[in-house]
Amino acid sequence: MMLSLKSHLRSQVVGAHGTGKTTLLHTLLPRLQDSYQRVVFKQLTNDPRRSWSQRLLQRKRSGQQVITDLRALPTGSMLVIDGWEQMLGFHQRRAVKLSQSKQVALLATSHQPINGFDTLHHSRMSPTLACSLADDLLTDSPYEVRQRVLKEVKGRQITSQTNLRDLWFELYDVVEDAHAQLASGPQMLD
User: Does the pLDDT of residue 77 top 70, yes or no?
Assistant: First the structure.
């Protein structure tokens, strides 16, 4: 992945909501900081409960902040934008032009492919990936807890559209119950 990033000025991580795009960025961040002169991480969000005009204003502010950040970055840096679609089209086009003229790399997440960006990764959920991620998250937990959670994950209908964030919230109680059962005595976890 790092080789691909270094060979493209604009890269993207594409995927549905909750499929691990932000998690991947945070995993890459230490290596990005070693590879670029400076790295700025910008997470753009917009609350869907807000009114249409408030969301539009937030998209404008987000775009203005991205442009300000790009202007401040020296050549050879990278701006990571988590939530590309949270900016207005005008600011997206301006960010691309500014990135090109300053030779500052862009790495963005989006729900849909971004025209002109190299696709670094297309995040899709799968049963195998869900089990692997659950096992990674629980490496410090006792074997019995990990096995119970993996059994729970394997028993679920996981598709490419499964929201990873929602799955973790649902599994939180399973993990807590397993830890509590283990702490209360030597009985077997079911």
Answer: yes
